Amino acid sequence: MALSKRKRATYFRYAQYGLLLVIALVIAFTANWSEIVHTFFDLPTAGQMFPDLVTVSLKNTIVYTIFGFALGLLLGLLLALMKLSSVAPYRWIATGYIEFFRGVPALLVFLAFTVAVPLAFKIKFDIYSTVMLALGLVGAAYMAETIRAGIQAVPKGQVEAARSLGMSQGRAMITIVIPQAFRIILPPLTNELILLTKDSSLVYIIGLARDEYELTKFGREFLSRSPTLTPILVVGLSYLIITLPLGYLSRYLERRTGGKKVSVV
Fold this sequence. Notes:
Layout: H1 5-30, H2 33-40, H3 43-48, H4 52-83, H5 88-103, H6 106-121, H7 127-153, H8 156-164, H9 169-199, H10 215-223, H11 230-256
C-alpha cells in the first residue's frame, strides 16, 4: 500500500534523526578524548592567558572594531546619499568606491595603510588610525549599499508628505527618511559589526607592541610558546563573547522591525 505524503515525510525525518545519531555515536566512540582534553582544555595554560587576554587583547579588539565601524558608518551614509544623488559624477564616484572596496580583500587594505600609503605620502599612521582606516574603508562599501537599500525602502509618500509641509528635500531626507531607514537596516548593520569584529584580526600583519595586541595576535603569540592548542580555543571563545550577543541583538532588532528585508544588490 502506498504511503501518504505525511507518512513519507515522517519516516524521512526519522531517518535523518537516525543518521545524525549514528554520526554522533561514531564520533563519540572513535575520538581520542584524553588527547582532545589535554590538547584543547589544558586549564593551567588557559589560566596563564589571564588577565592579559581580557585587559589587553579583548579590550583592543572591541576598540578597533568600534573605531572601524564608526568611520564605516559615517562614510557609508555619505556614499549611500551620493549613489542616490541626481548628480551623475557623485553616483559614479560612489559606485566606483563601493565596487573597488567590495572586490579587494581587506588584508590588502591593511597592507596598503601599513606600507604603501606611508611610503607614497610620507605619512606614519599609529595603530588606531591604521585599523580605523582599513576597517572603516572596507566596511563603508558594504554599509553604503545597506543604507542605500534602507533609504529606498522608506515609502515615497513620507517624502511627499514632508515636502507638502514645506520641507526642503535635504531636510526631509535628514529628519524623515534617514531615521526611518536606519530603523529598517539596524539588523544588517549589526551583522556588519560582527564581520568587522572578525576582520579586526587582520591587524596581526602590523608590527604591534604587546599592549596593542588584539585577540588573534595575542593567541598566535601565546600559541608559539604553549605546549598545547588551548590558546586557540580560548581565543575562539573570546570572539564568541563578542559576536554571540551581537547575533542575538540582530535577531531581536529584526523582530522589532517586523523582519523587513532590504536588498543590497
